[in-house]
C-alpha cells in the first residue's frame, strides 16, 4: 500500500463534556478522494480545523507527507501544501479575482515582503495566477471583483486559490453547499479532475456527489468514526444505514 | 483607478497652488497654514497605511508624532546649549540628521507598541494603542529636563543645506516635498506584494492565513512604517512651531490624525490631504467666530461616516458603497 499523504492517529478533542473528536484515525492516500460524511454536529468541521492547525487536538498526531506537523501553525501547514476551502466561501471581497489568486501564489512562494514593484506587473505572480484560474474554469473573469461573483464562481475561485498553493492535499469543506443542480454537477467534474493533482479529503452532505466522487468514505458520528470503506461497503454497512443513511431515506 | 490617480495629483497640486497664491499676494500667514496642512496630512498618510490599508485602528499614533517632535526639539536644544546628549554625542540643528533620527526612534517605538498590541483586535487594539500613547504623554509631562508640561521651545528653526528654512515658502517646499515623497512611497507599498498581503489581512485574515501568509508580521511592518512617517511629520511640526509640548502626544492629537484620514477617505492615497485641509480650513474660518467650531467638525464627521464612508475623496469619485 502506498504511503499515506495525510495520516491522523487517535485524534481527540473535547469541549467541556462534549467529545467533538473521539479517537479518530484516518488516512488520505495518494490519488484518492476520501469523503468524510456524518450528520450535523458529528464533528466534521472540528476535525478539519485540527488538520489545518486552527484548533489543537487534546491528544493524537497529524502527519503530512511523512512528517509530524503538530507543532506547525495554520500558515506553515498551508505552505507545506495543505490547501483548504471553507464551508462558507472565504475570498478577499474587494480584490479582483486575479488578485485573490495572486495572493495565494504569493503565500505559496513565501515571498511577501517585497515593497517596490507593483504586484500586478509581477509576472511571477500574475502568470501562475492566470493558469490556476483557467484550471478552475474562471478564465475571462480575472478583472471582476470577488464580491461581485456568483456563489458558484466563488467556489471556483476558492479552488483556484487552493491550486495556487501547489497543494499536496486538498481539504474541501462542503464545496457543494448552496450550489444549484447544474453548479453541483460542474463542480463534481472539476473535483474529479482535481484528484489527479492531489488527493482530496472531502467533507460533504450532498450524497450524490459523494457517491459519484469518493474512492473511500468515512462516516463520523458523535466524534467517532463508525466505518471506513468503499462506496459499496458503506452503502451496505448496517450501522451506517441506521445512524446516518437511514435517516435520509 | 486612473481617475483616482488624477484626483490624488489634483488635491496635492491644489495645496501647492494655494501656498503659491498666498505667497504671491504677500500673505505669509496663509503659506504657514498650507505648511501646517502639509505636515498634518503627512501624519495622516502615515496613519492611513495602518488604519486605511491595514485596518489597524490605532488610537495612539500621536505617540509617534510626539516622539518625532521631541527628538527634534531635544536635538535642537542640546545643539543650542552646546550640551552633549548621552554618550557624549552632540545635538544637531541639521534636518537631514534630525529626520532619520526622529523616524528611527518613532519606528522603534512603533515596533515595541505594535508587537505588544497587534495580538489584540477590535476595541482592545484601540484601547491598548491609546494606553501606550497616554503613557508616553505622561512621561513627557513628568520629565522636567525637557520642559515637563510646559513643553520645550527652541528659538531657531533647524537648517537644511542651501535653504533658508525660516522663510515660509522654502519651509513649505520642504514639507510639501516630503509629503509628495510619502505619497509616492505609500502608493508603491500599497501596490506591492506587501500591500496586497496587508490589504488581504484587513479584509479576511482567515483566508490570508489559509493561503500561507501570517498576518502578524505583515501588520507589524505596516505599523512600524506608519509610525516612522508620523515621526517625520512630528519632527516637521516641531520645526514649524519651534516648540513641542506633551499635547502633541495626547489622545486629542491621535483623534485629530484619525479625523484627517476619515474625513478625507479611509484607504485613499490623497485622502489625508483633503481631510487635513478641510479640518484646518474650518479651524481658521470658524475658530475665530465660535469656540465651538469642533462641534461642527463633529457633525461633519458624523455625516461623512453615515452617508459617505469613502470620505471627501470618495464623494468626489462618487464611488458607490459596497458590501
TrEMBL record, chain A:
Enumerate the spans annotated as ABC transporter domain. 6-247
Q: Which SMART domains match?
A: AAA
Q: Which UniProt keywords apply?
A: ATP-binding, Nucleotide-binding, Transport
Q: Which CDD domains match?
A: ABC_Mj1267_LivG_branched
Question: Could you tell me one molecular function GO term of this UniProt entry?
Answer: ATP hydrolysis activity
Q: Supply one GO CC term from the record.
A: plasma membrane
Per the record, a Pfam family?
BCA_ABC_TP_C
The family database entries (Gene3D superfamilies) matched by this protein are listed as: P-loop containing nucleotide triphosphate hydrolases
- Listed name of the protein: Branched-chain amino acid transport system ATP-binding protein
The record lists the organism as Paracoccus sulfuroxidans
From TrEMBL, chain B:
Predominant location: membrane
User: GO CC terms for this protein?
Assistant: plasma membrane
Q: Which residues cross the membrane?
A: 5-23, 29-49, 56-76, 96-116, 123-146, 166-189, 216-237, 257-280, 292-317
| Membrane topology reported for the UniProt record | Multi-pass membrane protein
Question: Which keywords does this Swiss-Prot/TrEMBL entry list?
Answer: Cell membrane, Membrane, Transmembrane, Transmembrane helix
Question: What Pfam family is a match, any one?
Answer: BPD_transp_2
Native organism is: Paracoccus sulfuroxidans
Q: Which GO terms describe its molecular function?
A: branched-chain amino acid transmembrane transporter activity
| InterPro entries membership | ABC_transp_permease, LivM-like
Protein's UniProt name = Branched-chain amino acid transport system permease protein
**Where in the cell is the protein located?**
Cell membrane
